[in-house]
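pls ignore typos typing on phone
fe (ii) ion + seq
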Amino acid sequence: MQQTPVACVQHFFDANTSTFSYVVYVEDGGECAIIDPVLDYDAASARTSTASADKLIDFIEAHGLKLQWLLETHAHADHVSAAPYLKQKLGGKIAIGERIREVQKVFGGIYNMRPEAEAFDHLFSAGELFNIGTLRAQALHVPGHTPADAAYLIEGSMAFVGDTMFMPDVGTARCDFPGGSAATLYASIRHLLAMPPATALFLCHDYPPTGREVMHTTTVAEQRAHNIHVKDEITEAEFIAMRTRRDATLKLPTLMLPAIQMNIQAGQLPAEESNGTRYLKLPMNLSW
Ligand SMILES: [Fe+2]
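k done
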């Protein structure tokens, strides 16, 4: 009988952006994937630092792991990806859902830039199977927050759900960015919640209410029973009405304009200009 490998998951929390990054592997010395790595970015000084990414490197080196994949769940609006820095240090392929092309098109227009799909090493089609060492993994297409969101299902029993659901007491991700859709997110979430009740869900963020510690994982059963936005008794119409009302009150994330222009190019920093300095663009008085 063939044995199913057991995945080890190490989480890392960036308190500045409330983001979880993960290293997934089977055993020391084997292959691993990093999910959603953060490049620290101070908006006031336009200065990056690799303190968060270096913690991932330290962990990977301490466990003798070989980096096979740098998996992005989507083009993040709240932090810059450290994928290019980690690829340069450790190797591995940067991958995201193939509908990133749509996100690149929309934001390429906003920034007057031409981001290329080839900035990523691999674009996953919906449902595509792949391996992390001996682990069987699948890229699920879970749009709604953006058109290109992916969730990564490992060995059919743990799913990295990106910006779809948060902890049950926090709810769900916003859907008001270009190409976002509350109806689409509802369908994606119902698809995820159709998985077996014990399926572990690993989150991209946590914004805990006062008094609760930061948590990075929950289960399908917990979400179906308790998620304040999508528990089982909430209808699609109720969800869409709630999400639309709530999204209208949300400000743009602080790092959105700098982060997205790098993240639609797999996290690459802008090219140096002739004086050796890199410059970001800030579109003014945007409406979309
Ligand atoms: Fe996001």
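The radius of gyration is 18 Å. Residues 74, 76-77, 145, 163 surround fe (ii) ion (CB under 6 Å). more later
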